[in-house]
Amino acid sequence: MKVKNSVVAAENLDESASFYTDVLGMEEVRRFSPVKGLTIAFFKGEGEATIELVEGEKGKKGLYMVGVEVEDMAEEIAKLKAKGVELTRGHIGPPGGPKVAFLEGPDGVEIELIQP
């Protein structure tokens, strides 16, 4: 598995964005609001992984999701189930898009499996 992204819930997206760009030197590559009251900004440094800041996720603060890329979703899910792991959510997103599934890690951090 390859780490694809980390998602951080931000109380103030603009203040957090300034830290990632001005202090860490990352580039903000995209910002959008998929639904009213929720804004997501993507930041990229060196390498392929991104950090996503999310403002508007009620009850969440700090790191709450890590995305990992898998080659074969069905095979990965079978391996996880054999180890007693249950998925918390299945595919979301547009038809024909990447396959996505979610499970909860031991510290409450959600793990997002992504098959491009």
From TrEMBL:
This is Glyoxalase/bleomycin resistance protein/dioxygenase. The lineage of its organism: Archaea, Methanobacteriati, Methanobacteriota, Methanomada group, Methanobacteria. InterPro entries: Glyas_Bleomycin-R_OHBP_Dase (IPR029068), Glyas_Fos-R_dOase_dom (IPR004360), MMCE/EMCE_epimerase (IPR051785), VOC_core (IPR037523). One of its GO terms (biological process) is L-methylmalonyl-CoA metabolic process. Residues 2-116 form the VOC domain. Pfam families: Glyoxalase. One of its GO terms (molecular function) is metal ion binding. It comes from the Archaea. Signal peptide: none annotated. Keywords: Dioxygenase, Metal-binding, Oxidoreductase.
